[in-house]
């Protein structure tokens, strides 16, 4: 089978279940594992490099208002790969090539490749997508083993959380302007032992005011700007603290947002485990300060 993956998350999954050798095309964002970089790149973005978070927000809003796509598909590269399966998404036009663009390109090329679309909104649906992809590429046993291992790791986190008060957590999915999280991120906070006090599980992320962040009375602020790695998130967290935009005295933790939070793949579990450790330390510190 010859597979084109138009999502960094599904590229990760395909390699994780042993189908990496079948992947012939990827996006410019497919960077995990490193071997994915050796595949033909078939999609790019129209967004200029080097923009600030505020500039990115403005660019995206203007492009969407004009009805323009943020991602382009190289039909020539796609056509030359003779794909049997194209994996894409119908979740977020800001995140990746939309399925309608893929369908139009395949029709133009006269390509008969199957198209498999993913649209996960919860942690459970993300794990289900691993099984679905495994079935589609003939790697069902490997996919089942991966899903079982991820469930086992989440069960370990649940047992470690136990009962008792949960730290109030605000996750910033974007920082300028601030966005509260949606989709699977509030659920990740709950699994890690926190209470996500802004945003709703399974829903879209929403723009909020800084007043709302303060009124939420968080114990922990997780800085997880979509598309940024840990260093990029840390730089934004440092700037927020320097500008005095966050509640005084709150614990601020920057994460690898691109790899472990925004990307609906196996590393979401890494994100849950990391946050669970941060919240456990926060609870321990809070307890000791009251003694």
Structure in words:
By secondary structure, the protein is of the alpha/beta class. It has two domains: 3-119, Nitrogenase molybdenum iron protein domain (Rossmann fold); 165-289, Nitrogenase molybdenum iron protein domain (Rossmann fold). The protein has eleven helices and 13 strands. The protein has helices at residues 8-16, 53-65, 75-80, 99-109, 123-136, 140-161, 185-191, 210-215, 230-242, 257-260, 268-289; strands at 3-5, 23-27, 40-45, 71-73, 85-89, 114-118, 168-172, 174-175, 178-180, 195-196, 206-207, 220-223, 251-254. The strands form three sheets. The protein has a six-stranded mixed sheet, with helices on both faces. It has a four-stranded parallel sheet with strand order 10-7-12-13. A three-stranded antiparallel sheet has the order 8-9-11, with no helix packed on it. Strand 8 (174-175) and strand 9 form a beta hairpin. Helix 5 runs antiparallel to helix 6 (140-161) and helix 6 runs parallel beside helix 11. The longest helix has 22 residues, at 140-161. The chain is globular and about 60 Å long. The termini are far apart. The mean pLDDT is 89.
């Amino acid at each position: 089978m010859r597979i084109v993956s138009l999502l960094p998350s599904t590229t990760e999954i395909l390699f994780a279940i042993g189908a990496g050798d079948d992947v012939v095309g990827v996006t410019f964002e497919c960077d995990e594992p490193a071997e994915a970089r050796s595949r033909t790149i078939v999609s790019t973005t129209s967004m200029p490099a080097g923009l600030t978070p505020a500039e990115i927000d403005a660019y995206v809003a203007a492009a969407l208002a004009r009805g323009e796509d943020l991602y382009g598909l190289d039909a020539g590269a796609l056509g030359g790969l003779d794909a049997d399966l194209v994996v894409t998404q119908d979740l977020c036009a800001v995140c990746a090539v939309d399925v309608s663009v893929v369908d139009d390109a395949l029709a133009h090329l006269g390509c008969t490749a199957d198209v498999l679309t993913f649209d996960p909104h919860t942690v459970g649906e993300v794990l289900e997508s691993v099984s679905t992809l495994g079935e589609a590429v003939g790697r069902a046993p490997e996919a089942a083993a991966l899903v079982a291992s991820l469930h086992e790791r989440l069960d370990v986190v649940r047992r470690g959380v136990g009962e008792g008060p949960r730290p109030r957590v605000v996750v910033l999915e974007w920082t300028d302007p601030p966005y509260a999280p949606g989709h699977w991120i509030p659920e990740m906070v709950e699994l890690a032992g926190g209470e996500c006090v802004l945003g709703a599980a399974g829903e879209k992320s929403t723009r909020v005011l800084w007043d709302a962040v303060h009124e939420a009375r968080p114990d922990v602020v997780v800085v997880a700007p979509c598309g940024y790695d840990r260093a990029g998130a840390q730089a934004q967290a440092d700037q927020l603290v320097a500008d005095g935009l966050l509640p005084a005295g709150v614990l601020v933790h920057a994460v690898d947002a691109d790899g472990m939070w925004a990307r609906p793949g196996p590393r979401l579990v890494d994100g849950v485990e990391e946050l669970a450790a941060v919240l456990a330390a926060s609870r321990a510190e809070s307890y000791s300060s009251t003694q």
